[in-house]
């Protein structure tokens, strides 16, 4: 199978400009399973491309840790500077980055049950809201790509969190693309 083709970001910036932004904010110097944060972000984007995700989802995957996450506290950019990321990657992709970064995983993950009506809790504000079905699907694709890459590069985390992650992602059901579902089964389905 030929390598997945990355779609150009819809925000008007080139892939090179986005990578330069990430480097300029230290992503190439932050340790992360599998090397650096930048290497991880690029692999997440590549997975999303291989699964057929659209340009905004791929770009959000590339930038998903810009504001930090519930699992990776280091932020490359403070939330007060969201306009900077919007200008770089566009409103739609930035909104997905913000949704991903703001997810209170302990509250939201147990609510994922395969239905498109999931109430999110924003870890930054404490507010609850329901993302659109399209945004929920994008969130889950980015989540699957992120977690699969982390576990592929850290055997200890895979052993510790793989079975729970498998259960969580299987509960997402058809909210994940068939390609993402296959990747989840291949990588995590054999774990005890």
UniProtKB/TrEMBL annotation:
Pfam families: DUF6817. InterPro entries: DUF6817 (IPR049202). Residues 21-105 form the DUF6817 domain. This is DUF6817 domain-containing protein.
